[in-house]
Amino acid sequence: MPLILLLLTACQIPKAENKRVNNQIQTIIIDSDTSMVNPMLPKTNAKLVLDSNLTLLLGNGKKINISKAKFNKIIKDIKFVDLTKLKDIKHPPTLGESYKTVLIKTDKGVYGFSSNKETDYPVLIGQLAYKINQLIKIPTNSNTSKWQKLKLLKDYSSTDFNLKEGVEYLEIRTYFRGQQESEYHTKQYKVIVHMERTPLSFFEPKLLKEFKKIVPNLSKESNLKSVSFCLMRGCTSIISNGFMIDEHKKMWVMNTTEDILNMIGDVDTPAEVKLVLWLNDKKMSESKEDIYKYLKSPKGYKILHEYDNSLSNLGECGHFTYEMFISKKGKIIQKKLLKKSESKKGCLAVD
Predict the structure, then answer these.
(1) CA–CA separation, 306 and 318 (whole Å)
(2) Residue 100, pLDDT score
(3) Which of 6, 92, 159, 164 sees the fewest Cβ atoms within 10 Å?
(4) pLDDT grade for 70, boundaries at 50, 70 and 90
(5) CATH architecture of the region 18-134
(6) pTM score, whole prediction
């Protein structure tokens, strides 16, 4: 089924007033110095240098080669902006901040911006620094012959997920409906997980305000984490929607599991494995008592799931161990029961 997305609005970062501005970016330097915070600390610098020769130089002398397309994507938001009009953002003094600077050398001159205990980078510069730092993000090494335990979904970092090109930010919101209620509370929600190339705080305030007010799509076709827990008095239900900001600052809403999986592409990190499991789990919330372990293979991930159920409302009582396989496309296949015994807590029903 093709990805179903609902376009809600588009808020572009303001372009330069002078349409003739065309910066030829030669070098970008990001420098951090902790001795500026406390002179008693040893002077420690972390410097990144990105140049038009398509090389990122690290502070330890190592270098990373990048493609021309990647370089152009990183600088595209500052290429046609009058850099003299970008000003650092002042805020009340804070403690414990390092002194960080971004220097941009172009054919027109050198422009400096700082982030410290009294100022933040301009929004565009903050986004630029974040994108450059993402180039050196160390990928999680899940290629191991030993079983590894998965964390709860909420315990993974927003950058533990590899979003597809063009997706800058994605979050999943869950909505609640009580036992005696016929409709979900659409103005109240809980953000279950968020994934990012660009942090949400880096977007323009107007866009953020609209993003938080997006109305979910709860049509009959919605199947994104739709779960109910039923008692004699009625059922309590939850349902989720995904909300995305793309590279053009357009906002989209999605209401199917397929939509979300299409945003991350191939499943290739433990965080993405846990997301797949959460999307397919019929429980209303995560539990530390549900133990998931994974073993990576060339075709995906082998999973062991051990859990105990003592509530007949949630299905068969017992202590279970299942084995399953998650493909790179996020499909759960080859699920089979390995072991079953009586629940350690007995079995009861809640009215």
Answers:
(1) 11
(2) 86
(3) 92
(4) confident
(5) 2-Layer Sandwich (3.30)
(6) 0.72
For the chain, which residues make up each domain, given as ranges? 18-134, 141-152+284-351
For residue 36, what are the CA distances in angstroms to 31, 127, 203, 268? 12, 23, 28, 40
Which of 266, 253, 230, 268 has the alpha carbon at shortest distance from 349?
230
Query: What's the Cα-to-Cα distance from 268 to each of 24, 40, 330, rounded to whole Å?
Result: 36, 44, 10
Average pLDDT estimate for 34-39:
44
Q: What is the 3-state secondary structure (H, E, C) of the chain?
A: CCCCCEEEEECCCCCCCCCCCCCCEEEEEEEEEHHHCCCCCCCCEEEEEEECCCEEECCCCCEEECCHHHHHHHHHHHHCCCHHHCCCEECCCCCCCCEEEEEEEECCEEEEEEECCCEECCHHHHHHHHHHHHCCCCCCCCCCCCCEECCCHHHCCCCCCCCCCCEEEEEEEEEEECCCCCCCCCCCCEEEEEEECCCHHHCCHHHHHHHHCCCCCCCCCCCCCCEEEEECCEEEEEEEEEEEEECCCEEEEECCHHHHHHHHCCCCCHHHHHHHHHHHCCCCCCCCCCEEEEEEECCEEEEEEEEEECEHHHCCCEEEEEEEEEECCCCEEEEEEEEEECCCCCCECCC
Structure tokens at 112: 């400096």
120 φψ region: left (φ > 0), alpha (ψ -120 to 50), beta (else): beta
**294: nearest Cα among 282, 306, 309, 286:** 306
pLDDT for 11: 39
- What is the average pLDDT across 251-280? 95
Mean of pLDDT values over 113-141: 79
**Looking at the predicted structure, is the pLDDT value of residue 111 above 70?**
yes
> What does the pLDDT average to over 157-181?
90
Mean local confidence (pLDDT), 115-122: 84
